[in-house]
UniProtKB/TrEMBL annotation:
Protein name: Asparaginase
Superkingdom per UniProt: Bacteria
Species this protein is from: Peribacillus loiseleuriae
Pfam family, one: Asparaginase
Family under the similarity heading: Belongs to the asparaginase 1 family.
GO molecular function, one term: asparaginase activity
Key words of the record: Hydrolase
Length: 308
């Protein structure tokens, strides 16, 4: 991105990280590919799949030690998680971005790019899945989320923190992901919607989604996984139409659990067939459900996916 004379931030004609730098050339031999030039709100699952296929094809073409993907920050975590679930490789893959425009004072794009190259060529990054690197921190794709609209330290991993740091001279990892999931994916055609629960919510949106013939729904529910009682009839209509419904919490920290037994409480929701996600935020649960629906129609198998 580049800021114009009126202060509006727009697409630059050329990606500034293409600028040759002795620092970069001293670190690695770069193979540069630019499949598209889009603001991150324009990214869809189709572009995510295109990146996946480009990375996999590039790995087959020649020996590659690591991959760095530059991406706008608004949907960066969704693309990173999509790739984490679908790319079948152990080589380091790093997704990075910038919070300040390329011609803005204190622009962080090139710095984050160099930091990401350091991580991508680091032996300790092998086998850790897709990583997100910005502001000297290394996060997993599953946990990192954008937490501030403009601050350069926007990417955080609530509850877990970064798994490593980048310094001027070295890359240090202090945690390792416990497990990784990989799912085959060759196309994206399913329609999965994300809704956020609120006080006084009723069933109208759920009935409308059923009529839209969606393939799946993720709800950012209240607290530990509860919904207003007026929503239950609409949710039951979706379940009766064999549309899987997954819930996460709209809270910043914590996971959903079937604790409360009142009408609309977590225990009630689980009893009627809603799937509880294990700690993902709403946008990532949507990505996981989208990928899951391309692999299975079994509610039990999808439930198993979200228990991992």
């Amino acid at each position: 991105m580049m800021e114009d004379s009126a202060g509006a931030v727009k697409l630059a004609h050329e990606n500034p990280i293409k600028i040759t730098s002795e620092t970069i050339h001293d670190m690695a031999n770069l193979i540069v590919k630019e499949p598209f030039n889009l603001p991150s709100p324009h990214i869809t699952a189709a572009e995510m799949l295109s990146i996946k296929k480009l990375v996999e094809a590039s790995i087959l073409e020649q020996p590659i030690d690591g991959v760095v993907i530059t991406h706008g920050t608004d949907t960066l975590e969704e693309t990173a998680y999509f790739l984490d679930l679908t790319i079948q490789t152990s080589i380091p893959i790093v997704v990075t971005g910038a919070m300040r425009s390329s011609n803005e004072i204190g622009s962080d794009g090139l710095y984050n790019f160099i930091s990401s190259i350091k991580v991508a060529i680091c032996d300790q990054a092998i086998g850790k899945g897709v990583l997100i690197v910005l502001n000297d921190e290394i996060h997993t794709a599953a946990n990192a989320t954008k937490t501030h609209t403009s601050n350069v330290s926007t990417f955080q991993s609530p509850q877990y923190g970064p798994i490593g740091i980048v310094t001027k001279r070295a890359v240090f990892f202090h945690h390792h992901p416990e497990h990784q999931e990989k799912y085959p994916l060759e196309k994206v055609s399913k329609r999965v919607t994300l809704l956020k629960a609120h006080a006084g919510m009723d069933s109208s949106l759920f009935y409308a989604l059923k009529d839209m013939n969606i393939d799946g729904l993720v709800i950012e529910a209240l607290g530990q996984g509860n919904m207003p009682p007026q929503t239950i009839k609409g949710i039951e209509a979706l379940l009766a139409a064999n549309i899987p419904v997954v819930i996460v919490s709209r809270c910043f920290n914590g996971i959903v659990q079937d604790v409360y037994g009142y009408n609309g409480g977590g225990k009630h929701l689980k009893d009627i067939g809603i799937i509880f996600s294990n700690g993902l935020n709403g946008q990532k649960a949507r990505i996981k459900l989208l990928i899951g629906l391309h692999n299975t129609e079994s509610q039990l198998e999808i439930q198993r996916m979200f228990s991992l």
